[in-house]
Amino acid sequence: MRSLFGVSAFSGKVAVLSGACHPLGRALARRLAGFGALVVAIDRRAEPLYALAKDAPQRIEPLALDLSSAAARGILAEAWEREPVHALYDLSALAGEAPLSVALERSAGILEALTPGLRAGRGRAVLALPGAGKPALAAALAALLKDRDAALAPARLHGLRLPAGTEGWTEARCMSSGDLMLALTHPVTRGLAGGRVLTERAETGTTGKERDGDG
Prior knowledge:
- This protein is α/β, with parallel strands linked by helices.
- It has 6 helices and 7 strands; from the N terminus they run βαβαβαβαβαβαβ.
- It has helices at residues 23-34, 46-53, 70-80, 100-121, 135-152, 171-184, and strands at residues 14-18, 38-43, 60-64, 87-90, 124-130, 156-162, 196-199.
- It has a 7-stranded parallel beta sheet with strand order 3-2-1-4-5-6-7, sandwiched between helices.
- α3 (70-80) packs parallel to α4 (100-121) and α4 (100-121) packs parallel to α5 (135-152).
- The chain starts with 13 loop residues before the first strand and ends in a 16-residue tail after the last strand.
- Mean pLDDT is 86; it is low at 202-215.
């Protein structure tokens, strides 16, 4: 990532990360903090979330919330309604333990709660869509993405199709998938139109970007 993009673009920026206890979430939080961003790390599980924050206590702010709760989404909206949000990474659908309706509510809820902040920060949001094994949820999230992208302007929303679950997330995989998420929120890719679903191509052992046929 350092050789491809100027990581100074993340310094001093606010990045909200939902699903922060997922292996990719933990890796992404640490990288963003290392780049100088303020990371608001959200997950339902408080203990691993606070353990993550200890890695960079000045840069990672833990927030234990279940975003399927309207009250929790209200807390988030109130906290950030006047503050610019420069990047949002929603990994909450990857864990895969929640029913479709709950998983969809979490992703829709965080987008709604942070819309004013994303607009104020002219931010970029990336919604993780689970790959094989969760086709109904992936389709519902893709529809959500298309519906919400225009409403976020001048912010933009992208989708990234990634493996569901928490198994198999090696350090190398977290690095390559994290590179994609960071690239989608970096100024160098701001010419990319929003409302698209990209697919991680891990089957060849490399990671690339490809527009999905529904994007």
